Hints:
380 residues, alpha+beta, seven-stranded mixed beta sheet, 9 helices, elongated, binds zinc ion
Amino acid sequence: MRLRILWILLFTGLYTIVSAQVKIRLFANKSPESAVFAVTEGKYELNLFNGEVLTVLKNEPVIITKFKGRLACKKRNSEGFICDSLIFSGKTGKDSFSLRLDGDQSVKQYYSNDLKCFPDLGTLVLINISDVEKYIAGVVMAEGGSGKHLEYFKAQAIIARTYMYKYFDKHVADRYNVCDNTHCQAFNGLSSDSLLNEAAQETHGLVILDKDSTLIISAFHSNCGGETSSSDEVWLSDQSYLKSVIDPYCVASRNASWQKSIPVNDWIAYVRKSGYHEKVDDILVFNFTQDSRLSEYKTGSFTMPLKTMRSDLNLRSTFFSVFVKGDSVILKGRGYGHGVGLCQEGAMEMARRGFNYKQIIDFYYFGVIISDIKNAVLLP
Ligand SMILES: [Zn+2]
Ligand SMILES: [Zn+2]
C-alpha cells in the first residue's frame, strides 16, 4: 500500500500543480528601507498579531519602515505599531495598490492583489502575490520593446509565461518565485496598456513546449540582423528548437545595422593581446567578411571567438565584417543582441504583415508546440 502511494507521488511529481499566482520580489536591486503603500482600487485588510483587523481604504496611505530588525508601520490617521511581518490582503477581488519609495531612489509603481512585507539583512523585503496574467502583461511592457501589435504582444506574453514557469523555483529558498529585475524578467508593475493585458488574457496559460513536452528556453533578442544564431554557437548548449533561421522580416528595422570605428593601432594592440603574434606588413590582413553567421574571426592562422570580441569591444552583435580603411578599422555589423530565438523586430514586422502569434513563434522556434501549462512536464 505504502509503495503504491510512493509511486503515485513519484509519478505526479513530474506534473507539479501549476500556480495561478506568482510571488514577485519588488525593487529587488534597490534594497529599500521603507515604502509607502496606497490603495488605488478596492479595499485591503491588515491582520495584526493581536487579532485586530485594520482596514485600508483609498486615501489612507500606510508607511512601512524597517525598525530594529522589525517593521514599524503607520496608517494615516491611525496609531503606529511594530511587527515582524505583514500582509496587505485585497478584499474585493479587484484590488490594486501603488508602492512608493522616497529618497535617492524615488519611484512609484502599481501592482495588483496582495503584498507581503518583512525585514531581512538590512532591507525591507516587499513581495507581491500577483495574478499570473497581470504579471505577464507587466513583463511584456518592460521587455517587449516598442511593438504595438496584438499578435506580437501575444507571442511575447507566451514567451514571458514560458520563462516564468521554467524558472518558477529559482528563488524558492528566498520565499518567492521571481525577482523584478533582469536576473529573472524585468517587471516594473502593472501595465496600463489595454493591448498588453488583452494579449496576456487571450493567451491565458499558454506556454511553448519542445517535443518532450518540457518548457523551452524561450530566448529572444532585439534584432538578429537577418539570420538568428543557433544556441550551440552562443551558449554551447544544443537545443533542437534554437536553430539558425534566415529572417527577412527585421532587415529594415531600427537595430538592423550598426558600425564602429577603431583606430588601427588600438585594433593591433587588441589582437596582439588576444594572441596574434604575426608581423603586420599589410594591415589589410585584418579584413574579414561575414555574409552569414560565423562563430570565429579569422585572419591567417589566427582565430578568435566572435562572442569574446563582442564582449571585449562592447559590440551590439557578433554578426559583423571588418574593413580596414586608412587609419581605422571599421566594424560593419548587423543586428542587436545574442541572436538566439525570437527576433523582436522581425516578430513585430511579421505581426504588422498579418501573421498571428502561432506563426510568429513557429517561425523562430523550430518544431515546438504551443500548449496549456497543464500539459507541460515540469522537471524538478
Ligand atoms: Zn531573479
Ligand atoms: Zn531578425
